[in-house]
Design goal:
The protein is α/β, with parallel strands linked by helices. The chain is built from 17 helices and 25 strands. The chain folds into two domains: 277 residues, P-loop containing nucleotide triphosphate hydrolases (Rossmann fold), CATH 3.40.50; 199 residues, Rossmann fold. The protein has a nine-stranded mixed sheet, sandwiched between helices. The structure holds glutamine. The site of glutamine has 10 residues, from strand 21.
């Protein structure tokens, strides 16, 4: 039997609902259950692909090419279960599908309405592809009380009614603030938020109370009685660091036990949390630190690079060092001599990005890394910048640039107009739709023998990694770029799309067209991040 746990949030946003959902997934998995997580997002964009990462954080890409909410990244990192297209939907997607069906005559004769047509479509999304799973955890984006989340709440209310308590449960995440002037914890916001949920017909079965300190038993009981929840199901969720300690902390507060109790499943045996204890132990025992500069554009909202920051942390776990991240807005390197700031770092990373602003600063950072032999990792846009830098400063093409920024004389990076997916060719034209039209998801790269990346990937002749790009390194310039010493060490199987470049006469200089950070896990650090941090450790002379 598949059971559904619906996770909503109240009081304020940014309480860490995604991590709480992911941690519950990890706990159920550690008890041997088969788990799948999903996210319902109330905004009107069909997917987050067209949004700036400074709005909702990074766009997480799945193997099957969906551009999704960053919480799916948390789900994958905590459970190791790879998400698909079908695990994230938005109001925009639901309406687009319902309206397309209406235009096609699919509701012939009916007045199409939010209830039941939109709510039915949401219920279908929640219930599809659930065979074989013990638990489906469904996180509802936004905060209870928002107008835009109402159809989602109505849909899960109906599902709760249809499935009954044996198959459904509602977990509500709230905030219990401490008021310094009164020296008291306040339960009223939680009471109001639970009432708000009751207004739409949902009685929470468990409360996860975010708080910056212990919640005394008396307060816990007060919350339980006002909110109509068993006292054991009021779970204090205190701030813990690192985030990989969250499953352990929530387990100690009884979260997984109470979920199992709700579903009348046995809970006397302890879950196997060795994996999490090992990660936390490795992080606390880390000795020494390396400093990595991340030279990007969206550095004012660190969620823009969530998976990247996590993958670098995983590289630190693998090397038993602390990784300190220095987020640098690339525009500062457009002033003369500003690159000196990079003197102190042990590795430089230029991440993914879009648009021309800040690119000259990124190119300056690549040049510094290349000339000063500082370990360099270029990801997607970062690889494209590395190629432009080599073309300009080593390849005698001072005009080299990307056609993303307009026409230029030496477009060493150009618009991808066609590529293959299996036996079919996908075509794109300049000026087409921007949503969902990039080269997205898992594609194969063939690795050259004797290359650094091939050894990093343990000698694998080919790899699969996730992509999200519209432009590519122009293969017509391959000869001229190789003459500068740059090696094209990974190519698409048809040899048309450069996937990886490296500089053999440098301690560690790798650019990849894909996003390796999306597949890194704390219990299985990505080999490229592991090796990049190892190079930074050598740079810092820690070994
Ligand atoms: N803007 C570049 C492209 O579309 C790089 C994209 C990225 O870094 N994800 O190809």
């Amino acid at each position: 039997m598949t059971r559904f746990v619906f996770i909503t949030g109240g009081v304020v946003s940014s309480l860490g609902k995604g991590i709480a959902s992911a941690a519950l997934g990890a706990l159920l998995l550690a008890r041997g259950y088969k788990v799948r997580l999903r996210k319902l997002d109330p905004y009107l964009n069909v997917d987050p692909g067209t949004m700036s990462p400074t709005q909702h954080g990074e766009v997480f890409v799945t193997d099957d090419g969906a551009e999704t909410d960053l919480d799916l990244g948390h789900y994958e990192r905590f459970t190791g279960v790879h998400a698909t297209q079908r695990d994230n939907t938005t109001t925009g997607r639901i309406y687009a599908d319902v309206i397309a069906k209406e235009r096609a005559g699919g509701f012939l004769g009916a007045t199409v309405q939010v209830i039941p047509h939109i709510t039915d479509a949401i219920k279908d999304v929640v219930k599809r592809d659930t065979d074989g799973y013990d638990f489906i955890l469904v996180e509802i984006g936004g905060t209870v009380g928002d107008i835009e989340s109402l159809p989602f709440l109505e849909a899960i209310r109906q599902l709760g009614n249809e499935l009954g308590p044996d198959q459904s449960m509602f977990v509500h995440l709230t905030l219990v603030p401490y008021i310094p002037s009164a020296k008291e914890l306040k339960t009223k916001p939680t009471q109001h938020s639970v009432k708000e949920l009751l207004n739409v017909g949902i009685q929470a079965n468990m409360l996860l109370c975010r708080c910056d300190r212990e919640i005394p038993e008396a307060e816990r009981r007060k919350i339980a009685s006002f909110c109509n929840v068993r006292p054991e199901a009021v779970i204090p969720a205190l701030d813990v660091a690192p985030i990989y300690a969250v499953p352990i902390a929530y387990h100690e507060q009884g979260m997984d036990r109470e979920v199992l109790r709700h579903f009348r499943l046995p809970f006397d045996r302890e879950p196997d949390l060795t994996r999490w204890r090992n990660i936390v132990a490795a992080m606390t025992a880390a000795e020494g630190e390396v400093h990595i500069a991340i030279v990007g554009k969206y550095t004012n909202l660190l969620d823009s690079y969530k998976s990247l920051a996590e993958a670098l942390t995983h590289g630190g776990i693998a090397n038993k060092v602390n990784v300190k991240l220095d987020w640098v807005d690339s525009e500062i390197f457009e002033k003369p001599d500003a690159v000196q700031r990079l003197e102190a770092v042990h590795g430089i990373l230029v991440p993914g990005g879009f648009g021309e602003r800040g690119t000259e600063g990124k190119i300056a950072a690549v040049r510094f890394a290349r000339e000063r032999k500082v370990p360099f990792f270029g990801i997607c846009f970062g690889m494209q910048m590395a190629v432009i830098e080599a073309a300009r400063n080593l390849g005698g093409m001072p005009e080299a640039s990307s056609s993303e920024f307009g026409p230029c004389d030496s477009p060493v990076v150009g618009l991808m107009t066609e590529w293959s997916v299996g036996n079919t060719v996908v075509k794109r034209e300049a000026g087409g739709d921007l949503g969902g039209t990039m080269r997205l998801g898992a594609y194969t790269a063939v690795l050259s023998e004797g290359s650094l990346v091939r050894s990093i990937y343990d000698g694998a002749p080919s790899i699969e990694e996730r992509h999200r790009h519209r432009y590519e390194v122009n293969v017509n310039y391959r000869g001229r770029l190789e003459a500068t010493g740059m090696r094209f060490s990974g190519m698409s199987p048809d040899g048309e799309l450069p996937e990886i470049v490296e500089l053999p006469n440098h301690p560690w200089f790798v650019g990849v067209q894909y996003h390796p950070e999306l597949k890194s896990k704390p219990f299985d650090p990505h080999p490229l991040f592991k090796d990049f941090i190892a190079a930074a450790v050598r740079q810092a002379r820690l070994v």
